[in-house]
Amino acid sequence: MNLKIYPLQFEAILKERIWGGEKLKTILNKPISSSITGESWELSTVEGDVSVIVNGDYKGKALTELISDYPNEVLGTVVYKRFGNQFPLLFKYLDAREDLSIQVHPNDELAKKRHNSFGKTEMWYVMQADQDARIIVGFKEDSSPKEYLDHLKSSTLVSILDEVKVKPGDVFFLETGTVHSIGAGLVVAEIQQTSDITYRLYDFDRKDAQGNTRELHVDLALEAINYNKVDTFKEYTKEVNKSNTIVDCPYFTTNFLPLDGEMVIFKTGETFTVYMCLEGSFEIEYNKVKYNYKKGDTVLIPAAMNGFTLNGKASILEIYIS
């Protein structure tokens, strides 16, 4: 039986976080019921958090099931050859009412050895930023395990880390090993490898509603950290009705697509494509059927969906695997 081909949307997987807020509802119209909702997982095959399709013939079906039945058609021939039945990326929106913990993610080799998982290379697109909002990315100057541990013990770790003020439209690309934290007052679109492995280094000594501090992973992090100064900020062009490359790495390619009017898209069947709508609204027309999307929507284009039209006025992230 052949795959019924159309753009796929998924039920948001909403996550309460100690640092979360309500902007996922007020800004992105997510159906949150908690005042500490920190994350909306838009597209996930992380075990225990597998996305479920909400539209069309496959409504109610898990993404993992669809991939299992139609791996080449959903993932693409190149992606399937490289990753098998695994969907290799995870897409999220985050609302940081407070600072996230200072953390780091292991690389593929370490994550495989310790957790049988992918590593976690990721990127952030800043969708909304309160005045003076900032992020932490890497060290101010090249550091060392000893310096890091000394500052950790004296609760002065932040003093040797690079704090960067941010504004909407800023993009940061974080390779594994980069110590980081999303600061308070930010809404971020996040694209990352399929992994939920995070080593928490410092959590600002805060406590949850029960008076407990969250677990730290100081020893695990030692081997995972890149102690060198890194450049994470990405410059990119914004040419209208064109895919402007922001990040092109072994794990994903992300383009910025400012849509104003109509664009005809042709695909080769080698990779799936994901669109995240950052601003405005647009429609996809495929086989004479129109599908509509607005700010905060995420849509998966199966690799077998070769030719379609985009129409509207929107800022879109376009993601695929090269």
SSE blueprint:
Layout: E1 13-21, H1 23-26, E2 37-43, E3 45-46, E4 49-50, H2 63-69, H3 71-75, H4 77-83, E5 89-96, E6 102-104, H5 108-115, E7 122-129, E8 134-139, H6 145-153, E9 161-165, E10 171-174, E11 180-182, E12 186-193, E13 199-202, H7 218-224, E14 244-248, E15 253-266, E16 273-286, E17 289-294, E18 298-301, E19 307-320
Antiparallel strand pairs: 1-2, 2-5, 3-4, 5-12, 6-13, 7-10, 7-12, 8-9, 8-11, 14-15, 15-19, 16-17, 16-18, 16-19
Briefly summarize what is shown:
One of its GO terms (molecular function) is mannose-6-phosphate isomerase activity. By secondary structure, this protein is mainly beta. The protein contains seven helices and 19 strands.
CATH fold title of the largest domain: Jelly Rolls
Please identify the structural class as seen in this structure: mainly beta
Fraction of residues in helix: 10-25%
The CATH architecture name of the largest domain reads: Sandwich
Domains counted in the coordinates: how many?
A: 2
Q: What are the low-pLDDT stretches, counting only 5+ consecutive residues below 50? A: none
Number of helices: 7
What is the radius of gyration? 20 Å
Mean pLDDT, as a whole number? Answer: 96
**Morphology call:** globular
Largest sheet: 6 strands, antiparallel
Instruction: Give the DSSP E fraction (strand runs of 2 or more residues).
Output: 35-45%
Distance between the termini: 28 Å
CATH class of the largest domain: Mainly Beta
Counting DSSP E segments of at least 2 residues, the number of strands comes to 19
